[in-house]
Write a structure and sequence with these properties.
The protein is an alpha+beta fold. It has helices at 15-28, 37-41, 45-50, 106-120, 136-144; strands spanning 6-9, 60-66, 72-80, 89-97, 126-132, 148-159, 162-172. The chain has a seven-stranded mixed beta sheet with strand order 1-2-3-4-5-7-6, with helices on both faces.
């Protein structure tokens, strides 16, 4: 992937590519995601399409990174809280870069783009995320993008009988 990838918001037409990428993510890194391959692979394509709304006021947005051949090689989402008392918060979710596209700045581009989308949303002040404890590369990326640790959740996910902690991070958008 020699050139800078094309970043764009995913739409329902991208559902099959997004599904394939995320199933790869769940399979290769089961401790990094709350969702599992077995749970998600049996969901119909329509479920995946519904998670890619196109309206400007959608409560979630997923950004994709495409290589020179038009293949989806990375994705990251932003989910905006809808409850009145927490509408100032959003969550970065589903961050994944395919192995062939790693170490080329794709992750940074995705996180920066998601943060730009968050800053453009009226009233949003904070983006939060979780990262599996011990995933030092991902945590370092988030820190370079302005996220700070605010806690740790022990036993956050269980994969094959083994528990993994999640590090909670946040980024103030208008600080």
């Amino acid at each position: 992937m020699p050139q800078k990838p094309e970043l764009r918001r995913l739409a329902p037409a991208d559902a099959a590519a997004h599904r394939a990428l995320m199933l790869q993510a769940y399979e290769q890194h089961p401790d990094a995601f709350t969702s599992s391959t077995s749970e998600r692979e049996r969901l119909p394509l329509s479920w995946w399409a519904e998670r890619l709304p196109t309206g400007d006021d959608a409560s979630s947005v997923v950004v994709g990174a495409f290589d020179d051949d038009g293949q989806l090689v990375g994705a990251a989402g932003l989910s905006i809280e809808e409850r009145i008392k927490s509408r100032h918060k959003a969550t970065l979710f589903g961050m994944y870069v395919a192995p062939a596209a790693r170490a080329q700045g794709v992750g940074r581009l995705l996180v920066d783009d998601v943060l730009s989308l968050a800053r453009a949303r009226s009233g949003l002040r904070v983006v939060q995320l979780t990262v599996t404890q011990g995933n030092d590369a991902a945590q370092a990326l988030y820190e370079r993008c302005g996220f700070r640790v605010f806690g740790e959740e022990p036993m956050a996910v269980c994969v094959d009988g083994r528990f993994y902690a999640k590090v909670h991070m946040w980024c103030e958008l208008r600080g």
